Amino acid sequence: MEILVYGIGGVGGYFGGRLANAGHNVSMIARGEHLRQIQKHGLEVESIKGDFKVKPKIATSDISEVPKPDLIILGIKSWQIPSVAAELMSIIGENTIVLPLQNGADNYEKLIEVLPEKNILAGLCFIVSFIEKPGKIKHAAYEPKIVFGENNNSKSDRVMKVHDVLDEAGIENNIPENIQLEIWKKFLFIATISGIGGLTRVPIDKIRDSEYLNKMMRDSAKEIIQVGKAKGVPLSEKHLEMVFEIINSQPKGTTASTQRDIMNGKPSELENFNGFIVKEGEKLGVKTSVNRYIYECLKPMESAARKSK
Questions:
Q1: CATH number for the domain whose boundaries are 180-308
Q2: pTM of the shown model
Q3: Mean pLDDT along residues 267-284
Q4: How far from 192 is each of 82, 124, 225, CA to CA, in Å?
Q5: CA–CA separation, 153 and 183 (whole Å)
Q6: Widest CA span of the chain, in angstroms?
Q7: What residue segments make up the domains of the chain, in order of their start?
Q8: Which DSSP category does 215 fall into?
Q9: CATH number of 2-177
Q10: Hey, do 2-177 and 180-308 end up sharing a CATH topology, with the first three levels equal?
C-alpha cells in the first residue's frame, strides 16, 4: 500500500514511523530542519513501546514528488486542513482514502468542502508525542490508538482494509459504532481544557483546584454538550462525568498542546475549539456565554500569532 503521511509532528511522525517500520511504502511531507534531518538520517522514534528508526520511501516538502497514494494520513493541525486539502487535490486518485486524525469536531466537514466526499473517512487518535529535536519524535505517554470509520458508520471494505494495515503495523485501532460520538467525546475533553488553560496559563491541576475555575470548566463543557446534541450527537451527562474523571486524573503540571501554542505565541486551534462552539451555538440557537468569554479573551492573541507566522 502506498501511504502518504502529511505532517510529521508528534502524531504523523509516530504513526507514519510505525507504518514504515512495518514495511509499508510511506512517503512523508515535512518542513525545515526536521525534513532535512529525516532526509539525511531517517526518522528516529523514541517510544515507551520500543525505540526504532526508519527511512521513509520519500521525505519531501513538495507534494508533486509523491506517488499517488492509496491512503493519506493527516498529521497536521485542524486549522491547516483547508490549505492542505487544496494541495492534496493534485494527488487524489479515484480510490484514495484520506484519514484525518486532528483534534476538533468538524475536520470531516472541512475536508469535504475541498475534496470529494467519497475519498474521506472520519477519525481521531490518542497519543502523547512530540518533536523532541529535528528528525526525532518522542512518544512519552498513552497507548497510541487510532479510532476511525465511515461518516455513516458503515463497515465498508475500505475501512476494514485500513484496519488490517494498522493491525499489521502493531497500531491499536478501533472502528466504533458511532464515529461522530467518539470524535465529540474527545473534543469535549480537549476543548474544555485547552482554552481555559491558554487563558489562565497554568497547568490543569491549578485550574481544577480552583473552585471558581473548576465550575467555569464544567459550565464550558455543558455548553459543548448542548451544541453537540443540537447537531444530533448523542452526548449526555455520562460523557460530562467521564471527561471530568479524566481531568481529575491528569498529573500535576499537565498542559494541553493548544494551551502551549497560545502561551508560546504560535497559531493555535482556538478557532476550531472554543471558536467553533461559539459559531455553531449562534447557528443553532444554543447559548455559549462561557465559551464566548474564553474565545473573545484569547482571540486578539490568536490574530497576532497568525499575522506573525
A1: 1.10.1040.10
A2: 0.94
A3: 96
A4: 24, 17, 11
A5: 13
A6: 54
A7: 2-177, 180-308
A8: H
A9: 3.40.50.720
A10: no
